Amino acid sequence: MARKGENGAMAGSTAGRSDLTNPSGAAEGSKPAPGLYLVATPIGNLGDITARGTALLASADLIACEDSRVTGRLLSLLGLPARPLLPYHEHNAEKVRPVLMAKLKAGAVVALVSDAGMPLLSDPGYRLVQDCLAEAVPVTSLPGAAAALVALQLSGLPCHRFLFEGFLPARTQARRRQLQELAPIPATLIFYESPQRLADSLADMRDVLGERNAAVARELTKLHEEVRRGTLAELAAHYTEKGPPKGELAVVVGPPAPVAPATEEDIDRALATALETMSPRDAAAAVAAAQGHPRRAVYARALVLAGKRGG
Fold first, then answer.
1. Closest Cα to residue 104, out of 232, 12, 206?
2. Which of 226, 244, 249, 268 is the most interior residue, by most CB within 10 Å?
3. How far is CA 235 from CA 163, 204, 207, in A?
4. Closest CA to 117 of 79, 150, 155, 75
5. 215: how many CB neighbours lie within 10 A of its CB?
């Protein structure tokens, strides 16, 4: 049972307060209070949408969505009436956001949804939230399923401290550079990845992050849900051999194990790996951060090793 105050009232506003029997947060028989509602949609199983989210989608003046076809189909499957839909995604956000803000400031009830899961994760929604907060437009969240958190729960890896990184870069050099920055973070890491890049990404994680336990979760909450667990090396080998899997993917990687202070030999080995894809300056920065050594000293050593390679 929710505690007093957890009744769905809009953040920063006293409008829309109601008892817990009214999931939309509006007075009985009326529309929800004006403002922006961040509505979670199912990541696979249609039954995971909340009663509150369903009620809000049914009564919103406008639904901002990634793909109007996907959201339109969701409304149909839920048996809801058609609502005005406005595509809002990374490619048109700068153009569409002023349109949404004008609607909100005029008193509209606007729902923001992604194709699946919680909006704002790997989409430009946070900028709309920032604009609403700056203009004193009420904002609240109608929470629900999120693939990153479901994958974390099912991975069997530590959940008390984690970092959601989203999608890594598609190109190998940029991907390895980003992984170098993440390597020293003492937390479980969560990524999204495409099936076509999965094997290569797992291999880069193995090389850059070291041998860690991990899990690949696909088709979460759907009929063919699967979570494959193992070391990064085992998972990379499996998907290299079997080929790209089907469905939506999340990769969860365990935190680094505690290590003894790096020796000069350890630093040289780490630099040698980093120098394969990075400049001496970038390699030194990544290794210094990962090993906890002064950057200037590591850079000097990187120049020596790079010189030997060149020679």
1. 12
2. 249
3. 20, 12, 13
4. 150
5. 22
| CATH at residue 91 | 3.40.1010.10
Mean pLDDT of the chain: 88
Closest CA to 191 of 155, 223, 221: 155
The answer to whether the Cα torsion of 180, 182, 188, 190 is positive or negative is: negative
pLDDT single digits (tens) 192-203 = 999 999 999 999
Give residue-wise pLDDT tens across range 215-260: 999 999 999 999 999 999 999 999 999 999 999 999 999 999 876 7
Q: Which residues form the domain of 247? A: 148-253
* Residue of 220, 204, 158 whose CA lies nearest to 185: 158
- Spatial neighbors of 249 by CB under 8 A, at least 6 apart, are 192, 193, 194, 195, 198, 216, 217, 218
Asked if residue 34 lies in contact with residue 136, where contact means CB atoms within 8 angstroms, the answer is no
Domain shared by 125 and 175, yes or no: no
Question: 217 near 235, Cβ under 8 Å?
Answer: no
**226-231 vs 62-65, strand pairing mode:** unpaired
State the amino acid at position 259 in one-letter form. V
Rounded to whole angstroms, what are the CA distances from 113 to 57, 124, 162, 271? Answer: 10, 11, 24, 44
pTM for this one? 0.74
Task: Annotate 52-90 with b (16+ C-beta within 10 A) or e (fewer).
Answer: bbbbbbebbbbbbbbeeeebeebbeeeeeeebebbebbe
Measuring CA to CA, how many Å separate 177 from each of 4, 54, 283, 290?
Answer: 47, 42, 8, 12
Asked if residue 107 belongs to a domain, the reply is: yes
Banded model confidence at residue 124, pLDDT cuts 50, 70, 90: confident
- List the beta bridge partners of residue 97: none
Same domain, 160 and 81: no
Are residues 181 and 225 both part of a single domain? Answer: yes
Distance CA 183, CA 274 (A): 12
Residues 188 and 240 in one domain: yes
